[in-house]
Design brief:
Rossmann fold; oxidoreductase activity, acting on the CH-OH group of donors, NAD or NADP as acceptor; NAD(P)-bd_dom_sf; 7 strands; globular; seven-stranded parallel beta sheet; binds NADP nicotinamide-adenine-dinucleotide phosphate; alpha/beta; SDR_enzymes; SDR_fam; single chain
């Protein structure tokens, strides 16, 4: 009988966390979304009494404080596990390598902004908004969804010179997680940066340029894992991630690991 709160629950991995956690009807699952009318999640919540939709935008601190009040009203002021999953990127400049960034202050900020806003500032505001509930929870776990793209060995081995703002932001997230873990250890609160693997969360038909980019990445990732076949499904990613979260203890707190529970198998 545990309570979970997931940000960015409208689709992809966030939605899958909600779906799998809701199958245990003793769980209370709080799905934080920017738009509670989003079709999939609102339909799902309406047929699962243990799922509660809460409006919240991780880029907006006020909305997170309101979301925390709404969550407290549902759970009686406590929360066992917080999963900060929301993410945004500037897709147009994802292919840029560092030397391609322009000598233009505003343009450069614009390229970093969505990633920094969700991973770093959003990570702080989300964690701080729900911390009073986590302190009263039983499990006392906070998970930030990171990415293997922030692993230095994987970057070097696979030649991942692009996705600069995304990877830098997730690397910053990993450091922020270690800072939280250090601060919150005396309260027995465990904090983890967790990469969910390489996951197919594309909705609808995949445009050919996205399929081509995926094929390119697959070939790069094979430098790390020659047996890699492609992306995994959200079902597998979340099932394994939940096992890692289940095993999160004070010894592992502050670390960065994959859905496979280590810092080697990123796929
Ligand atoms: N898919 C992968 O291969 C992969 C690999 C490594 C790491 N990850 C990480 O796993 C997480 C989930 O990935 P995904 O592929 O499921 O992503 P996704 O399909 O793009 O979904 C992102 C989610 O974040 C939400 N979001 C965006 N901006 C938000 C904001 N300001 N406030 C609240 N929610 C916001 C989106 O909600 P809206 O519907 O409101 O836009 C959406 O629910 C991300 O942190 C991502 O970096 C994914």
């Amino acid at each position: 009988m545990s309570s979970y709160l997931i940000t960015g629950a409208s689709k992809g991995i966030g939605f899958e966390f909600v779906r799998q956690l809701a199958t245990d009807t003793t769980n209370t699952v709080l799905a934080v979304v920017r738009n509670p009318d989003s079709l999939n999640i609102s339909k799902f919540a309406s047929s699962h009494p243990n799922v509660h939709l809460i409006k919240g935008d991780v880029m907006d601190p006020k909305s997170l404080l309101e979301a925390a009040s709404a969550a407290a009203a549902i759970t009686g002021g406590k929360l066992d596990v917080l999963i900060h999953n929301s993410n945004a990127v500037d897709m147009a400049t994802m292919p840029y390598t560092p030397s391609q960034f322009p000598f233009d202050v505003q343009a450069t900020r614009d390229m970093f902004e969505p990633s920094l806003n969700t991973a770093i500032y959003g990570g702080l505001w989300t964690t701080n908004a729900f911390l009073p509930l986590i302190e009263k929870g039983v499990q006392k776990k906070i998970v930030h969804i990171s990415s293997g793209m922030a692993d230095l060995d994987l970057i070097k081995k696979s030649g991942l010179s692009y996705a600069v703002a995304y990877s830098v932001s997730k690397a910053g997230m990993n450091v922020q997680v270690a800072k939280y873990a250090t601060e919150l250890a005396p309260k027995n609160i465990k904090v983890l940066a967790l990469s969910p693997g390489w996951v197919d969360t594309w909705e609808g038909e995949m445009p050919s340029e996205v399929a081509q980019a995926n094929q390119f990445m697959l070939e790069q990732f094979r430098a790390e894992d020659p047996s890699l076949q492609g992306q995994i499904r959200p079902e597998e990613s979340v099932r394994k991630s939940l096992e890692v979260i289940e095993g999160l203890d004070s010894e592992k707190s502050g670390s960065f690991m994959s859905h496979n529970g280590n810092r080697v198998d990123w796929f």
